[in-house]
Amino acid sequence: MKRYKQFQPLAISEFEAAVWQHPVHKHNHFELIMIRQGSGVHHINGNEITYNGSAIFLVGPDEEHFFEIAERTQFIFIKFTDAYIHQVNSGSSFGLQQLEYLIKSRETHLAGFHLNEADQLTAESVINVILSLKQDLLSNEQLIWLQVLALAALLQRNMPELKVAAHRSKDMQAVFCYVHKHIYNPAKLKSRVMASHFNTTPDYIGPYFKRNTGITLRDYISNYRKKIIHQRLDSGNYSLKQIAAEFGLTDASHVSKIIQ
């Protein structure tokens, strides 16, 4: 299968197509795709998502996808790498948390975003600002980043809520999404709290996770938190004290112990 590699941290393109020119492919970056008009089907990881008019999709690295165009379609692609996310962040963690949750939520990637009329107009306005800045990516990098965070905030509130109905209570994707969403709040990651959320017991959820992943729930949470903290530190935009406050940790020494 073809794999596209993007070496620059950020790339923005706008084009129309009557026929999709790319095969089923993967890539090493994230793609935020906005469709302004047209109709067809977005194929992603074997799922088919029909679009007719405006639509927004988020595709992560290593996800297989392509478009089947029925009616000439206008696309806007915002492509960014992991390096971009941590390279230009100003040190404000709120928007970054929302973006990190979005890009980790494969459940959303497989469904797309269904915005109400007001939010759709806002998203289009934000993307128009991004397009106006794309001629000089280097000079406008920080301004574009702020627009991406605004989009992340807008899209997150339009994500499908994690269902806690009985037939979904033990769904592994829902468990992953829950962990990713609450990684900054240790109290919500306690086994009894998670068990209550998923309508099961503390004695069940841990072994269930281990049986399906080969790793304990506690280790997964620890490893995921450690990975994000390392990304914060590598960016050079955060102090240990700031990271401790963001993740609900005791102090900077607690952060140091986690990353050892």
UniProtKB/TrEMBL annotation:
Residues 173-260 form the HTH araC/xylS-type domain. Signal peptide: none annotated. This is HTH araC/xylS-type domain-containing protein. It comes from the Bacteria. InterPro entries: AraC-bd, HTH-like, HTH_AraC, RmlC-like_jellyroll. The keyword Hydrolase does not apply. It comes from Mucilaginibacter galii. Keywords: DNA-binding. One of its GO terms (molecular function) is DNA-binding transcription factor activity.
